[in-house]
Structure formats: C-alpha cells, structure tokens
C-alpha cells in the first residue's frame, strides 16, 4: 500500500477547514500523512487547527499564495504519491483508494485526476458532474467524448471502495495537446507520483493564478495522464474566489502566459495553426474583458494580438472596431446585449 502525502494550503478559510481535514482523515486508504500549510491566515485558522495537533503536520509561512504553500509542503512531504486539497473543498471517502487502484492499472501514468461535485458556500449540492461545467474543452460529450481524448480505458469498479459503483471507467492517454486547448484537471482531484514531481520541479510562484494549469501541462508533456470518470471530491463555489467576474482578467492573463510557454514546449506536437487558434481565442477573451472594464488601450493590444494569430476572425475585428466607440456607448451596447441574451435564455 503506497504512502500518500496530502497537502492543504490554508488561507483564511477557517469555517471550511474542518470539513476538508476530516475528509482526508476519513479516507479508506489510511496510509497517509496530512500536511496543512497555514499561508499567513489572519482569521481563526490557528484555533481551528489546535484539535488536530498530533494528527496532522502543521507548517506556517508568511502569506505567499497557494503555489508557494504547496511548494513548502512538497519540500517536506514523505509520500511516494502526493495529493492536493484546497481548504474549502472536500473528498469522497474512497478518493485516494480509487486513484491508487488506477495507478495499479496504469503504472506508467504520471498523475490521476477525477470528476467532482459542485456545491455552494453552505455545502448544498449544485451539480453532480462538475468537470463538464467548469472546463469548456470537455463540456459537450458529442464534441469531445473521453474516448477521443484518451487512447485507453479500463473498468476499475472491482475495487472494494467502489463496490457501489460498478464498472467505473478509468482512461489513460497522452493528452498534452488536449490540455493546451483547455484545462480539464481540477487540482484537488489530482494524485501524482513523487518521482514525476521531482523531475518537473516546483509550482511557478510568479503566476498569480493558473500555476496548476501550467504544472499539468508540464507533466502531460512527458507522461500519460489517467482520468477516473467518477466524482471523487466536492468543489465549493463561494464569494471572493478568483473566478468571479471582477477578477477574471487576472485569470485570463495568466492563462495567456501559460499558453505562450507551453506553445514553445509543444511545438513538435502541435501545428502552427493549432497554436495560433488557441492563442487567438484567449487574447480575444482578454480583449473583450478589458473592453468591458473600460481599459481601452489594453483591449486593443489584446485584440491586435488575437488578429495577428487569426486575421480572419470576425469577432476580433468587430471588437477592435468597437474599441473606438466612446465608453458610454459601449456601456449602452453591453446593457442591450445582456437584455437580449436574457430574453433568449
């Protein structure tokens, strides 16, 4: 039975932290250590963690972000397999056991990830299949069925922790080119081999967001990836997360940085057209976001970058022309668009 290290970065998530911790300590795969990295919390995190002294390894650092906290935990982790969990999410009891089984079935894989439930801030279930809601690249089965993304699949429902889920499918494949087109890996669903981590290196702390997307692209470049088609954790949607509209520009900007790096590494696997198409889409998204925020100069820069990559893009041309309208006219057009959209939906 492999020893697993679980790393939870915690920053001001005191109300949710006990649920996350208990979900790890109640895993059916018991051969594990839990490392909680307090990332300079200013709430009641310290007092919340006191009852768990002796059951967890507690590390503290000045606030430096999730990537730095994960790196700190990784430096001291003892497991041959490593998993990550955010302080406001939680696992199903068989999460680790199912993934260990998947590694036994696909021993050459670099990491295993899974589907997830989605809940609101109070823990109320919102949806049972979060992966196709959150990640556009796999949002529509008719467009990208798993059998198209991965080369192999195998049932792992024989595992005792999955006995109430018969014939759970695990898929394996080289998916770097798919990942370049869009992320599909929830960090809290990952179980990864230590030797892979040692070769790939640390999470990039220069990225404010999307450091995990960057990391999975680096892993996928050299190792097969396994996906378990079953929700094994719950992702909690709550106020203040970076995915909210007022902060989405930071997310998209960092995606652009990640993709520019990955394009160089994957130049032998992707055609110039595939690279340009993906980068054109992301710069179009960034341009539209900046336009809606009234950041006209930045909007034009992003839209021009999109047009350089895909000159025939009608959308990029349209938004480029719109950027020359007065800001108040843009605001009126946006309001009208939202009204029409609401009527149609």
Account of the protein in words:
With 345 residues, the chain is an alpha/beta fold. It has 2 domains: 4-236, Spore Coat Polysaccharide Biosynthesis Protein SpsA, Chain A (Alpha-Beta Complex), CATH 3.90.550; 271-344, no CATH class. It contains 14 helices and 11 strands. It has helices at 17-25, 45-49, 66-76, 95-105, 131-134, 146-149, 176-181, 194-200, 211-220, 248-265, 272-292, 296-309, 314-322, 327-344; strands spanning 4-10, 32-39, 57-61, 81-84, 90-91, 111-119, 125-127, 152-155, 169-173, 191-193, 225-236. Strands 1, 2, 3, 4, 5, 6, 7, 8, 9, 10 and 11 form an 11-stranded mixed β-sheet that branches. α9 runs parallel beside α10 (248-265) and α12 (296-309) runs antiparallel to α13. Residues 340-345 have low confidence and may be disordered.
Contiguous low-pLDDT stretches (5 residues minimum) are 340-345
- Rg, rounded, reads 21 Å
Percent helix, as a range, is 40-55%
Query: What order do the helices and strands follow?
Result: EHEHEHEEHEEHHEEHEHHEHHHHH
Instruction: Please identify the top-level CATH class of the largest domain.
Output: Alpha Beta
How many E strands?
A: 11
State the domain count: 2
- According to CATH, the homologous superfamily of the largest domain is Spore Coat Polysaccharide Biosynthesis Protein SpsA, Chain A
Number of helices: 14
Beginning-to-end CA distance, first to last residue: 51 Å
- Which CATH architecture of the largest domain would you pick? Alpha-Beta Complex
Structural class, judged by helices and strands?
A: alpha/beta
Largest sheet: 11 strands, mixed
Question: What is the overall pLDDT average?
Answer: 89
Portion in beta strands = 15-25%
Tell the overall outline. Answer: globular
What is the CATH topology descriptor of the largest domain? Spore Coat Polysaccharide Biosynthesis Protein SpsA, Chain A
